[in-house]
Amino acid sequence: MADAMTEINDAWNQFNELLESGTQMSIVTKIILSIIGIAIMILVEKNFILRRWEGIVAATDASWDDRIFGPLRTRIYIFTIVGGANVGVLWIDSANPGWAETGAPLFNAIFIILAATLASVTVKFILPEILNRFQRQSAVTVSGGNPLLVFLLRAVIWFGGLYLALSELGIELFGVLASLAVFSLIIGLAIQQTLGNIVNSFMLALDRPFEVGDRIEVDGVMGTVMSIGILSTKLLTLKEELVVIPNNSLVDSTVTNYARGGGDGVARRISVQMDYGVAYDEDPAHVKQVMLRVARSCQYVLSEPRPRVMMTELGDFAKVFRLFIWIGDYNDEIVTRDYLIERMDRAFEREGIVIPYPTAIEMATQELHPDPEVAAKKLQDKEVRRQRAVASYRLEEARLRKEHSKITAELEELYSKVKSGKITGKELADMQDRIRELEQSLALDMDLDD
User: Is residue 202 part of a domain?
Assistant: First the structure.
């Protein structure tokens, strides 16, 4: 160990002697040695510092440090190269001062720009994580507040960095901006429409009403966002037609985002309503129970919120029942509708529930079968199934009444606590969220007859 330390000290002394004798070296030799020194520094950083840092980053559960590691690593390499070049210039110019003084402002400007990029990247990845920790989660998961704050802070950093860097070079930033103002006005008038699209794309990036991959609807056009460009946004419709919408039109239109509207923090969840008409002599409890059973058998239908069935209309020739279901992903809506329509038809036929024909003429009672014995057997089977379904649905009604009473009691208790004024801060906000959730549950509950 002592021998190794002695060898290191000897090598360091030889290196110092080499530097002290630098005045006797040629400029080419000094440049080569400077490049070798920079390469050694980069290798040391890569193998002993950055590699261990990368291991620490990979071991953590957070994702932001993985995203920030690559940009920071690149800037550290650039910082090392520029710093090594600065030191090399000072060493090369030790015999004949002049280069270092001339190049000092340039190196200072580069260092300022690098520091600004480091600060900007840090704000880009770390600030959203900090803000999300203090931001309450809501049903709508996209908000323009955080991106706008991050952008403004990064803009301030870049403006300050450019101002200081140009000042080092003797350039007045405000003077440059003033001289460009008249020229920019002339160009702006010539390409006003194009600039409007560019500015609106900038505003879309700030507000972020949708992202690539979201399904949106604009002026009756529904499709998936394929790209958000400088001049336009491209949608791919369900018919696989590519629709190009200028950003000016997009900003001035009402946009429906199906990928960010779900409740309970489930962004892609949607509510689907389907109507079914049955004959007037059918028992509503029987029909509701069969429809609920079919809805619960579908793999795409969520168990929470629970499927609901309500009688919504007494039509000219049918009682109309509306099925309310929730799907976890709006992309499954078409296959879910196909499943429910097909299985509902089979279930109605199996249960003997008649779907009447839309006619305006007076008809005798629709026969179940031409053979009286078969018809009687079907009627008997239908009555048995009806009684079972009615009994099952009555149990469902009793459970719903009990749950309805429980929700009502909890709501009354929460109302009294909020009105007392003793609850404040986050506890009050959570309590108000709970009240809205319970009120929504009551609104979705079926009307129960006594």
Answer: no
Phi-psi map region of 140: left, alpha, beta (phi>0 left; psi -120 to 50 alpha): beta
Same domain for 105 and 222?
no
Encode pLDDT of 17-34 as tens digits.
Answer: 555 554 445 666 767 777
171 and 303: one domain?
A: no
Asked if residue 240 and residue 299 are part of one domain, the reply reads no
Q: Which residues of 85-98 are buried (b: 16+ CB within 10 A; e: fewer)?
A: bbebbbbbbeeeee
Q: Specify whether the CB–CB gap between 437 and 406 falls below 8 A.
A: no
* Per-residue pLDDT tens digits for 141-168: 333 445 656 777 888 888 888 888 888 8
DSSP 48: I
Strand ranges in 120-247 using DSSP code E only, listed in sequence order: 215-218, 221-228, 232-237, 242-246
Name the pTM for this structure.
0.45
Number of domains making up the chain: 3
Which amino acid, 251?
V
Q: What is the pLDDT of residues 273-308, one digit of tens each?
A: 999 999 988 888 889 999 999 999 988 888 888 899
Using alpha carbons only, give the angle 195, 198, 200 rounded to the nearest 5 degrees.
110
Q: Give the domain range for residue 126.
A: 10-187
